Structures are given as structure tokens and as C-alpha cells.
Write the C-alpha cells for this entry.
Amino acid sequence: MSRETRTVHLVRPGDCNHYGSLFGGTAMAWMDEAAFVAATRHARAKVVTVHADAMDFRHPVPQGSIVELVAWVKEVGRTSMRLEVEMWVEPIEREERLLACRAGFVMVALGPDGRPKPVDPL
């Protein structure tokens, strides 16, 4: 596995639905952002999201929880990178972390002209 990128968020009321759990769209945005950072670190260039795989939601993420996103570059093509992102939830009432969600993303590196640019291999 290549170098990981880790980010942490506090799940606030505005991030949640009427059931008090994290909106799926917010989870996806946070995961896309973590993938973006990991891809940028690898490519050292501007990157854009071109694909997001199915998101697998395994556990709800309650309001007040701490979530940690772990993203890493899994594969590299000529100009694209496939990344994996996991969202781990730390409920306030217990120490055990749970894998709440997992998804894959594909990012493409862009050169100054806005066209796809070659990326170094892993």
C-alpha cells in the first residue's frame, strides 16, 4: 500500500438528516476530498475526479461522532489513479472504531494546459 492520507471530521447537526445520522452525500463529499488529497500528493499536479465506484454503507454515522477518512492510491495508469477511501466512525459512547463506509475513486492528473498528464507509477 502506498502512503495514506488521513483526515478527521466532527459530525455536526448540519451534516445530518432528520434521523440524526450523516447524510450520504456529505459522506461522499468528504471521501472525494480525501481521495483528491491523496491523488494530488502522488501526482504533484492538479487532479479531477472522473469516477466514483459504488459506496458501501456498513454502519450509520451518528451526530457527534468523530470520523476518520483514510485514502490511498491503489493503482496508477498513464494519467489516472485508482484510489480507495474508508470512513471509520468513532461513536462518543464507545472506543471501538467501526468501518462505516468504503468507496473507490478514479482521478486524472491535468497539466497546465488542462489536458491529462502522465503520472509516476507507484
User: Anything to note?
Assistant: The chain has a mean pLDDT of 95. Strands lie at 5-10, 46-52, 56-57, 66-76, 80-90, 98-110.
